[in-house]
Design a protein that fits this description.
The chain is α/β, with parallel strands linked by helices. The protein folds into 2 domains: 8-143, Rossmann fold (3-Layer(aba) Sandwich); 155-353, 3-Layer(aba) Sandwich (Rossmann fold). It has helices spanning 17-27, 42-52, 68-78, 91-102, 115-119, 121-136, 155-161, 176-183, 205-214, 270-277, 299-309, 326-332, 342-353, and strands at 8-13, 33-39, 56-60, 83-87, 107-110, 166-172, 193-199, 220-223, 234-237, 243-249, 252-258, 286-290, 312-316, 338-340. The strands form 3 sheets. It has a 7-stranded parallel β-sheet with strand order 8-9-7-6-12-13-14, with helices on both faces. The protein has a 5-stranded parallel β-sheet with strand order 2-1-3-4-5, with helices on both faces. β4 (83-87), α4 (91-102) and β5 (107-110) form a beta-alpha-beta unit. α2 (42-52) runs parallel beside α3, α10 (270-277) packs parallel to α11 (299-309) and α11 (299-309) crosses α12. The longest helix is centred in the middle third of the chain and has 16 residues, at 121-136. The radius of gyration is 21 Å and the shape is elongated. It starts with 7 loop residues before the first strand and ends with a helix.
Length: 355
C-alpha cells in the first residue's frame, strides 16, 4: 500500500487518452509514485501544475492549443517543476527534445508506440527510474547560465611547453546537453587540444546535439566517426549506442567506435573512453572531467587514468550539478584533483592545457 507521505506526485501531460491511461497504470505500480492528474494539452498542463503542485511532470511535445515546449517555457518561468519530455527517437524528435532541455526539462524518455513498448520491462524501469531521478534533480532556468568567451589561446606559450596536443575527455549524463551548451562555447577556437565527449544519449540525439553545439562554438563540434583522425580544435561526441575510444597510429590519434557490451550500464560509456585514454603514449597531458549525471560511469576509468597516466581529473560540484551522481562517485574514489562549479570548469581545463 502506498504512503502519501513518501509519494512522488506526478502529472501526465498528453493529448492521447491511451498514453494517459497506460502511463498512469505503469507509474502507479511503483510504491513511491502517485499519478495525481492528467492534462490534455499544454495550457491544461500549465493550469494543472499551479493547481495540483506535482513533484514531476511528464510532457508530450506535440499537443493542441499549446504544445509541450511552449508549456514548458511558461511552467519554468511561473511554477518551476522537474519535467520529463516524451520524445520520438527521430532526428526531428531529437531536435524538439534538445530545445526542451535548453528550456529546463530535466530529461526525456522515448515516446511509446504502443502498449507493448510501455509495458516492456526495460522501458517500464527506465520511465520509473527517470521520474525518481527527476524528483531529486535541480531545476536550472535557461537564463541562469551565461557564457563568457575567453580570449584566443596563446599558442606560442603552449608550444614551448609540450610537443603534443592535449587530450580532454568529458563524461556527462542527466543535465548534460545544457551543461555542454554552457561550457563548450568557452573553448578558444585556436586551442591546441582535442575534446572527446561521452554523453549518455540514444542514436539521432547525439548527431542533433553535435550539430546544435557546432553553431554556437568557436571550435568544430561533430559526432565522432570511426577511423577519423583526432585534430586539435575539435570536439568529438560519441554517437548514441557506440563506445568511443582513441588509439594511436604512428604519431597520430584515431577514433575507434565499437558495439561491445554496455559498460557501467551504458553504451557509450565514460569508463570505456577514459580507459582508452590511459593507454596513450604520445602525450602526458590528459585531462578528464566528470560532470552532472546519475550513477557512477567514469569512476573506474578515472581510477585507471590516474594510476597509469597521472592525469588531471576534474569533477563538477554538487551545487551546479542537475544530478550529483557521476561526479560524486569519482570524487569519493579519491582521484579528483579539483571539484569545481560548472562556470569554472572550462577555465580549469584551458589553464591545464598549457601545463
Amino acid at each position: 500500500m502506498k504512503s502519501n507521505y513518501k509519494s512522488i506526485k506526478v502529472l501526465i501531460a498528453d493529448d492521447s487518452i491511451f498514453i494517459q491511461r497506460v502511463l498512469t497504470d505503469l507509474l502507479n505500480t511503483d510504491d513511491e509514485i502517485d499519478v495525481i492528474g492528467v492534462a490534455k494539452n499544454g495550457q491544461d498542463a500549465i493550469d494543472k501544475v499551479k493547481e495540483l503542485k506535482p513533484d514531476v511532470v511528464t510532457m508530450d511535445v506535440e499537443m493542441p492549443k499549446v504544445n509541450g515546449i511552449e508549456a514548458l517555457k511558461v511552467i519554468m518561468d511561473e511554477s518551476p517543476v522537474p519535467v520529463i519530455m516524451l520524445s520520438s527517437l527521430t532526428y526531428e524528435g531529437a531536435h524538439s527534445t534538445l530545445t526542451a532541455l535548453e528550456y529546463g526539462a530535466v530529461d526525456f524518455v522515448q515516446k511509446p508506440m504502443g502498449v507493448f513498448d510501455l509495458n516492456s520491462k526495460n522501458n517500464k524501469n527506465e520511465i520509473i527510474n527517470k521520474v525518481k531521478i527527476a524528483h531529486k534533480a535541480k531545476i536550472i532556468k535557461k537564463d541562469s547560465l551565461t557564457v563568457n568567451r575567453p580570449s584566443p589561446f596563446k599558442i606560442e606559450e603552449y608550444t614551448r611547453r609540450s610537443l603534443h596536443t592535449t587530450i580532454v575527455g568529458i563524461g556527462i549524463s542527466t543535465g548534460g546537453p545544457r551543461a555542454l551548451q554552457y561550457i563548450l562555447p568557452q573553448i578558444p577556437g585556436n586551442i591546441p587540444a582535442s575534446f572527446l565527449v561521452v554523453q549518455h544519449m540514444p542514436p539521432n540525439f547525439t548527431k542533433s546535439l553535435a550539430d546544435r553545439l557546432n553553431t554556437i562554438c568557436q571550435v568544430k563540434v561533430k559526432e565522432a566517426e570511426d577511423g577519423e583522425l583526432v585534430k586539435p580544435g575539435y570536439v568529438y561526441i560519441a554517437p548514441g549506442d557506440y563506445h568511443l575510444k582513441i588509439r594511436e597510429t604512428g604519431a597520430e590519434y584515431v577514433i575507434q567506435l565499437g558495439k561491445e557490451d554496455a559498460v557501467s550500464g551504458h553504451r557509450p560509456s565514460v569508463d570505456v573512453l577514459f580507459n582508452s585514454l590511459s593507454e596513450l603514449k604520445l602525450t602526458n597531458n590528459i585531462i578528464a572531467a566528470v560532470l552532472t549525471g546519475m550513477g557512477s560511469d567514469g569512476t573506474k576509468g578515472a581510477l585507471n587514468l590516474k594510476s597509469k597516466k597521472g592525469s588531471y581529473i576534474i569533477a563538477q560540484d554538487e551545487e551546479s550539478s542537475v544530478v550529483y551522481g557521476m561526479p560524486k562517485s569519482v570524487a569519493k574514489a579519491g582521484v579528483v584533483d579539483e571539484i569545481v562549479s560548472l562556470d569554472k570548469i572550462m577555465n580549469v581545463i584551458i589553464n591545464r592545457v598549457g601545463v
